[in-house]
Amino acid sequence: MFAKLFQWHEFLTPKLIHVFFLLAIALVVLGGLAGIFNGLFVMFRYSFGGGLVTILFALIGTVIGIILARISAEMILVVFKINDTLGDIRDRGGRM
What we know:
InterPro entries: DUF4282 (IPR025557). Pfam families: DUF4282 (PF14110). By secondary structure, the chain is mainly alpha-helical. Helix content is about 80%, strand content about 0%. It is built from two helices and no strands. It has helices at about 15-45, 50-95. Helix 1 runs antiparallel to helix 2. The longest helix has about 45 residues, at about 50-95. The chain is elongated, with a radius of gyration of 22 Å.
């Protein structure tokens, strides 16, 4: 496995993108939970309406963050898929 790290026959990024996606999801969820707890603090300490709005924005931001993490991971994978497809087309091109 360690020897494959220094060979350039296949890309490492498509295998690692799933790990980075899960890390991004974890960070987005932690940020959303922090926003919710902040909203609860504001709700009980200062203003019910302000806390409710903060919680609502935290939930919306969490959903948007998860969607953007998925889109960015898919876009990176699409670039590698295009590279594989172009390689297949190049290899097949000589036999037409």
